[in-house]
């Protein structure tokens, strides 16, 4: 079916976008939003609603039974761009079978919100895919980076940042020095975490960063192979034990891709069962280091962001952990607290479209940035913390960012 509008319509799906670029909402012209936001509202990822503002009125195109996907395709009358085809899509119909769907067009006055026109669809979606995150602790979490691409020292191929990169892991004496530097680094980070009032930490790169094309590796099982010095004298075991003994939760980075070695070089490969890959890495880190916080890097495949069923399976299997996927879709908020960045993308909180569906949803927001930017975003971040969002703060170095985060939590009453 095709509709003709009196002017070029604005709007789109309720999707937040793989990197949070869409957190402002579907305010641009149809099909002019960020590339990270698909035009199709597929219920596997987002509430199947297309929201449209055409100047003299508002419209939502909905899958009432939240079973089919809906889409408003490209205009058919360029350059005027006032005519658009409305499409219903479905999958998995077997030969000889039929399937029926209930869809609707809901019109309202200019300025009508999606809750006004389609509140019942939002409720139906939340009932079909219920919120399952039971994490009550919303105190800050510390980010710890053990390595970085800025380090270029021949005797330090894993690019460890301790001692400003001046580390020699090419001999036994140097490996012992690495262990001492790592544990001193942990002790300093613990003091920062205590000062911040954090609940725990996430270490981004326990495997080092020797091979940039595969970083972040996201496979703690390979730490001793990729960085043998981490296993010398149980260095990594001692490192994580220090945080646990100080009363902090521990965590690290994992990825849904699988590392294969080609000519000795590690390469990330997509696999058919990312949920199993992630589960095996989580089990290893929980068993060895007691990890319960997991930043999930590169949560996408060739089709876009990972199917939210991956995170639903993990949340059901490991109810005592908290996941922070990088490339999120709206439904991920039912099972995790996606990571987004104020520093990189100016994201200051969980999107309104998510809260319309899951009022208890929350994000982890990367808050450490320049002094000027921290000051500019303070009021918005304060409101987000009041609602329950978690701030991620650099915990491996001191600075104004620590006092900034402390002041927000103090003023937010958390």
**Proportion of helical residues:** 25-40%
Strand content: 15-25%
Class based on secondary structure composition and strand pairing: alpha/beta
* Spatial order of the strands forming the largest sheet: 9-8-19-18-17
CATH hierarchy: architecture of the largest domain:
Alpha-Beta Barrel
Q: Distance between the terminal alpha carbons, to the nearest Å?
A: 51 Å
The first-level CATH class of the largest domain is given as Alpha Beta
Q: What kind of sheet is the major sheet? A: 5 strands, parallel
Shape: elongated
The CATH topology of the largest domain comes to TIM Barrel
What is the ordering of alpha helices and beta strands?
Answer: EEEEEEEHEHEHHEEEHEEEHEEHHEHHEH
Count of runs of 4 or more consecutive helical residues: 11
Q: How many extended strands? A: 19
| CATH homology group of the largest domain | Glycosidases
> C-alpha Rg, in Å?
23 Å
Q: How many discrete structural domains?
A: 2
Short précis:
This protein has helices at residues 114-128, 172-196, 223-226, 235-245, 274-289, 309-317, 342-345, 352-357, 371-376, 378-387, 400-412; strands at residues 2-4, 10-12, 49-53, 57-63, 69-72, 83-89, 103-109, 141-144, 200-203, 250-254, 258-262, 265-269, 291-296, 300-301, 304-305, 322-325, 339-341, 364-366, 390-394. It is an alpha/beta fold and 414 residues long.
């Amino acid at each position: 079916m095709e509709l003709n509008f009196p002017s070029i319509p604005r709007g789109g799906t309720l999707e937040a976008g793989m990197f949070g670029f869409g957190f402002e909402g579907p305010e641009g012209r149809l099909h002019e939003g960020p590339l990270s936001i698909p035009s199709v509202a597929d219920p596997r990822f987002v509430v199947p609603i297309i929201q449209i503002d055409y100047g003299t009125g508002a419209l939502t195109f909905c899958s009432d039974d939240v079973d089919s996907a809906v889409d408003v395709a490209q205009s058919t009358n360029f350059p005027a761009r006032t005519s658009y085809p409305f499409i219903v899509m479905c999958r998995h119909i077997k030969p000889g079978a039929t399937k029926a769907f209930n869809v609707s067009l809901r019109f309202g006055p200019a300025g009508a919100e999606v809750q006004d026109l389609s509140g019942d669809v939002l409720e139906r979606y939340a009932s079909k895919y219920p919120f399952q995150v039971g994490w009550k602790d919303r105190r800050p979490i510390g980010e710890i980076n053990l390595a970085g691409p800025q380090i270029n020292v021949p005797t330090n191929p894993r690019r460890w940042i301790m001692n400003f990169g001046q580390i020699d892991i090419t001999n036994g004496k140097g490996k012992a020095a690495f262990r001492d530097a790592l544990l001193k680094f942990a002790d300093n980070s613990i003091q920062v975490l205590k000062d911040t009032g954090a609940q725990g930490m996430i270490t981004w790169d326990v495997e080092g960063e020797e091979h940039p094309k595969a970083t972040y590796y996201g496979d703690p099982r390979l730490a001793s192979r990729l960085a043998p010095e981490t296993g010398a004298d149980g260095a990594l075991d001692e490192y994580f034990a220090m945080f646990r003994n100080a009363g902090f939760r521990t965590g690290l980075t994992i990825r849904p891709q699988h590392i294969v070695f080609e000519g000795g070089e590690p390469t990330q490969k997509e696999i058919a069962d990312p949920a199993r890959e992630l589960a095996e890495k989580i089990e290893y880190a929980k068993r060895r280091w007691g990890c319960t916080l997991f930043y999930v890097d590169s949560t996408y495949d060739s089709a876009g962001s990972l199917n939210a069923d991956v995170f639903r399976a993990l949340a059901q299997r490991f109810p005592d952990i908290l996941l922070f996927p990088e490339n999120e879709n709206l439904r991920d908020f039912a099972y995790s607290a996606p990571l987004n960045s104020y520093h990189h993308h100016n994201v200051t909180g969980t999107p309104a479209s998510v809260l319309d569906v899951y009022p208890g949803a929350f994000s982890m927001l990367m808050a450490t940035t320049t002094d000027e930017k921290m000051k500019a975003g303070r009021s918005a971040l304060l409101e987000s913390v009041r609602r329950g969002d978690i701030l991620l703060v650099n915990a491996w170095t001191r600075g104004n960012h620590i006092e900034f985060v402390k002041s927000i939590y103090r003023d937010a009453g958390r």
